[in-house]
Every structure is written in C-alpha cells, then in structure tokens.
Sequence to fold (164 residues):
Amino acid sequence: MNTPWRKHPSWYGGLFIDAFVHASAGLRLVLGSPKSVSATTSSQADYLPGVDTMVAQVQWLHDAMGVILVSYAAQKLKFELEVTGTKGTVTLQRSGSGYKLLVNNEDEQEFGLSGIEAEFLAFAQACRGKRRDSNTPLEALKDLEFVEACLQSGKDGGKTVYLT
Fold:
C-alpha cells in the first residue's frame, strides 16, 4: 500500500475507494445488495492520505446483517469472510496463493487466484463483444455506491446511510 500513486490520489476516497470497491463487489455477489450501512472510519497510516480503516454495520436487502472490518494500514494482509446462518457457517480465507473455503470448519476446498492477467483478458474479451465477466457497469456502480455510503457514514459520525 506504500506506493507513490496511493500517496497522492486525485479522486475522492483515494485508496479506500480503489481497494474496497473490490471487496464490495465480492460481498454483493455473496450476500446481495446492501440496504443500509453505519460506519466508523479513520486514518491510521501516515503514508496513506484519507480513510484507510473502517468498521461498519451493514444490513442487506434480504435483512441479513453483518459487520465489516477493513484496514489498509495493517502490516499483514488478512482476508476472511464468514457467513453464519441457521444451517451452519461458511468461511472463505486468503491462504498463500489462493483461497480456502470451509463449511462448518470441516469440508475444505482450495481455490487459486485468477490474478490481474485474467482481468486483462476478460477486459479484452469484453472489448471484442465477447463479454465474460460477471460484473455489469450498473453492478459496478452499485459497488461504488456502497463504498461511498460507507465513507459518508464515517464522515457523519456513523449515521446510517440508506442505499437506493
């Protein structure tokens, strides 16, 4: 995270928007669209201008609730998504060169990272009219709307922001 272009962002939200929009897309794919968010945000790293840390309470359209904790100021990367329901728990963890999926802490599956190369190939295919990606421009705007709602709530002292 300590790279020159992140130290001097030319857009509102800087690094936080740039990084968290990807997590937002993943959450939307797993949990659906968020309905509301109440967030506390802060800046913890001197080398990152603007918001780099957030704790948020989120409610999704189907009334599931959850908590998001994210910090781009941390020294060590840790990624974990845990969904708990009436039939058990599913956990997705970053592990080495991929992800590990656990169902009720037992059935383990490993998945590799697709990497930036796969993103460029998908973009090239979309330019040729052979769309392969799973995120439409409208869905990408929904992801950005959620990130901006998180930032707005943090700026407003945790006031709940409702998404359209």
